[in-house]
Amino acid sequence: VSDLGFYSFLLKVQYLAKKKGKIVRFIDRWFPSSKMCHCCGCLNELLNLRDRSWTCDSCDTTHDRDVNAAINIHVVGASTAGGDTVRPAVAAG
């Protein structure tokens, strides 16, 4: 990625996706994917960068920061593609 520059990398990803019949969706760079509970939608405004896991004050779900962000990004991206809310299957572990 560092050799191509990030913009060039994104162009290549879009080209390859189109070639394979896939769609690349972008979400707002300021979307609070790490801070938003993927279960209830509550925002954790007190979450710091050093916090790797957190528990939602609203629904008491414990989240791994990166997994929670990935689920939120998937939901937003998939929802913009089809218009309906999409919930990914979350594997236990």
Could you characterize what this model shows?
The protein is mainly alpha-helical. It is 34% helix and 6% strand. The protein contains two helices and two strands; from the N terminus they run H-E-E-H. The protein has helices at residues 6-19, 65-82, and strands spanning 53-55, 62-64. The protein has a two-stranded antiparallel sheet. The radius of gyration is 16 Å and the shape is elongated. The mean pLDDT is 85.
Please tell me the overall pLDDT. Answer: 85
The SSE order reads HEEH
Shape call: elongated
Largest sheet properties: 2 strands, antiparallel
Q: How much beta, percentage-wise?
A: 5-15%
Q: Quick one: how many beta strands?
A: 2
Provide the gyration radius in Å.
16 Å
Counted by DSSP, the helix tally is: 2
Write the topology of this structure.
Layout: H1 6-19, E1 53-55, E2 62-64, H2 65-82
Antiparallel strand pairs: 1-2
Summed up:
The chain has 93 residues and is mostly helical. It has helices spanning 6-19, 65-82; strands at 53-55, 62-64.
Any key phrases for this structure?
single chain, mainly alpha, two-stranded antiparallel ribbon, 2 helices, 2 strands, elongated
